[in-house]
């Protein structure tokens, strides 16, 4: 009779050990051998690393990047900003504006504060070709970060340089002499994010109200490979554009007015992948490159930052 393993004896639920124990008793009573195996161990952090073992990353200057609140671009009205990205449409197509859900041939259904632009004007975004009421686009821009950029609400194409509302903080990055699972041929890039609690600014959900910052400093890991270094360079651009974190409601704890991740996934588990936030994960680097591109950050961004 083959050995039958009974797993997950130390699971987070108190029912798991009980069920495993009962199963073991029943199997023993039936004359079957029982093999009790422990679940894999969660490994969040690498072995201890001394300061002398930490190395800077070739091709990347410094080992630390700080951010403060960057003021949105001023001097141009929303109408002037959007004019760069639009073509006027004299004969609107027979379809709905996906912002207000009214027909494009009818005036905009936007009911907010009065705008200088006429509600029946229609424009087409030059890259993606989607059509909206100009009234609706201006209202959408005014409700956003007002940083000179625009993101198509239909296909998410970005016009201009998108920036976020990440609170001030510090990003450290260096090489440690340990290999990640699945990347035994190279060392590891460790990123340490640190954002302190503070008071929300005018760009945040509740201006003037304090916000919390749980779980900092947060340690994240990349393989020190060619593609891993590429991801790091793009993450530095995302950090400078204040796109890695935001203030909102935590999806894990339900706490509001707290610092949360902002749609760019990081690996916070060093030596295992039990939570889905670790290694090995053969698709991770490609996935995070796609998430960065969705925020308007590609290899072209590296040239733009230098300029």
TrEMBL record:
The catalytic activity, as recorded, is: S-ubiquitinyl-[E2 ubiquitin-conjugating enzyme]-L-cysteine + [acceptor protein]-L-lysine = [E2 ubiquitin-conjugating enzyme]-L-cysteine + N(6)-ubiquitinyl-[acceptor protein]-L-lysine
Q: Major location, coarse class?
A: cytoplasm
Boundaries of every RING-type domain copy: 97-156
Q: Output the InterPro entries linked to this UniProt entry.
A: Deltex_C (IPR039396), Deltex_C_sf (IPR039399), Deltex_fam (IPR039398), Znf-RING_euk (IPR027370), Znf_RING (IPR001841), Znf_RING/FYVE/PHD (IPR013083)
What EC class does the entry list? transferase
Q: Name one GO molecular function term.
A: ligase activity
The record's listing under CDD domains reads: Deltex_C (cd09633)
Tell me which GO cellular component terms the UniProt record holds: cytoplasm
Give the E.C. number(s). Answer: 2.3.2.27
Keywords linked to the UniProt accession: Cytoplasm, Ligase, Metal-binding, Notch signaling pathway, Repeat, Transferase, Zinc, Zinc-finger
- Cellular location of this protein? Cytoplasm
Its GO biological process annotations read: Notch signaling pathway; protein ubiquitination
Q: Does the keyword Phosphoprotein apply?
A: no
Q: Which Pfam families does this chain map to? A: DTC, zf-RING_UBOX
The family assignment reads:
Belongs to the Deltex family.
Protein name according to UniProt:
E3 ubiquitin-protein ligase
Q: Which organism is it from?
A: Alca torda (Razorbill)
